[in-house]
Amino acid sequence: MSNRKIRDEQISASSSFDLQSTGPQHARAHQESGSGAWCPKNQINLLSKEWLQISFSVDTVITSVETQGRYDDGRGQEYATAFKIQYWRPSLNAWASYKDDFELETIPANNNTEHAVRRTLDRAIIARRIRIVPVSNSTRTVCMRVELFGCPFDDTLISYDVEQGDLQSGISYHDFSYDGNLADAPHLTGGIGKLYDNEVGKKDVFVNHHKWVGWRRKRTGGVKLSFEFGELRNISGILIHTANEFKKSAKAFSSVSVLFSTNGRDFSDNIIHFNNPEDTESEAPRWIRIPVNNRIAKVAKLRLNFGSGSDWLFVSEVNFESNHTNIELLHDDVVIPDSVSYFSVTEHDDGTSMFAFIIFFFMFLIVAVIIIAVIYRKREYRVKASSPSPNAKREILLTIDGNTIKHHVSPSTYQMARDNLQNALIEKMPMSPIISDYAEPDISICSDVTANTPLLYGIDGPYDTQKRSNPLSSMVKYSDYGEVYCTTLPEIARDNWRTETLPLKDFME
Predict the structure, then answer these.
(1) What is the pLDDT of residues 44-60, one digit of tens each?
(2) Which end of the chain is more exposed for a tag (fewer CB within 10 A), N or C?
(3) Which has more pLDDT, 65 or 499?
């Protein structure tokens, strides 16, 4: 409560004096919120029905409860002098009431508003919801703060059925903490009590009887118990804590019969019988283990038989050695063995297997060599086919003779020659110093004569007799962004052009 693991919406109450200042959300111990505590609307007495309820998300084991009054920095004067505990879980048909070892329901609480009082329960309770019910011998105003101590219930037991214990000289050996259905007494059904509360009885059962459940021999057929789990369990052993005070005619059971069922209706014919040797030396209480050999079951029924010459049979606790299983059974007579059987197989060997292995090995080796050789030859052939001849020569010869170009290469060479010629002509043009990505030709440096002179010497026109250097000659002047440069262009070979002629105008197109 105080660490706020329990949220406000998990806390409710029968009523509140003022929901905002004294509602159930202010019932956390050791905290001063609102007006300091939960205060019910009505005053409390022995007949009042006010309660504070805490709900859990799962079944929870509660071992102790702590209570406080309303302190509110010294202004509060209300507290509960006593309270009762009621609890519920899905397997119960109704709310159950907690009882201590003396079968009392009332638990002492506080005598002031400041100090907290913690009460440890004589036996833990398993609850999904718990109610703290304040009570008082006189009518009074009560306010409470509460803290709970416990842990989630991690077992899968839903309930056990048992016949109610007997009385002896006014002493009860009943299972009085049983929280199931008591209407069919002496047969108890649908609940959990002393036999599954993790509390074992002490020696001298007729004095320290609070933890024991005892049955007299008057019963025929022994003592019958039935345990039901919420899932299939793989059970490997059952442990029973029993008394053996043979001098007082309270011996341990002499034998046990165990039946199993996966659905609670049909029980297997494979019954386990266990005989317990009689012990006439020690009267100390003891655990007796019944080996089960891994039986899959959801319900286990036990029948305990009285010891020889014994009038009483006492049991304080029953535990199961089991774990979860996902096995889906078609019938109940399934036993999981504890051990594994090993088998060996011997074959007659006359040497033929070794001979066959040698032949297979050599055949595999030959095939592997052939495959490698074929792959190597194909690879060598591909390398030779793709390699160029070292003696191959490539020559491109161009010349300009008048208005024609002679060549003896493939037509693709025309495009390369034309591109080279155009690039040379462009480089020949003077450029003006314009600072931009595009440079206009600069004709200011050209003379009057050269300004009107055709770029190519020998082209038909009025200036075909004018002497002008060939634009493809080795020395060319050109202007780039306002500056004049000289560069040397490679001379193009002029001889050996005899195979074909092409008009220059067609070439330039």
Answers:
(1) 999 999 999 999 999 99
(2) C
(3) 65
**Coil/strand/helix, residue 407:** strand
Question: What DSSP string describes 23-62?
Answer: SGGG-BTT---TTSSB--SS-B-TT----EEEEEEEEEEE
Q: What is the pLDDT of residue 499?
A: 42
With beta carbons less than 8 A apart as the criterion, state whether 495 and 407 touch. Answer: no
**Rounded CA Rg of the chain:** 54
CATH code, domain with 90: 2.60.120.260
- Specify the pLDDT at position 72: 84
- Phi, psi (5° rounding) for residue 317? -160, 145
The band of 424, judged by pLDDT with boundaries at 50, 70 and 90, is: low
CB atoms within 10 A of CB 108: 12
pLDDT value of residue 355: 72
Taking a C-beta distance cutoff of 8 angstroms, is the pair 460, 503 a contact?
A: no
CA distance 149 to 83: 16
Domain range enclosing 264: 157-324
Same domain, 320 and 422: no
Q: What are phi and psi of 21, to 5 degrees?
A: -100, -30
pLDDT at 375: 85
pLDDT value at residue 183: 81
- Residue 189 · residue 159 · CB < 8 Å: yes
Return all residues near 56 (Cβ < 8 A) that are at least 6 apart: 6, 10, 127, 128, 129, 130
Written as six digits, the tokens of 198 are: 């993790």
Tell which of 291, 324, 357 closes a domain: 324
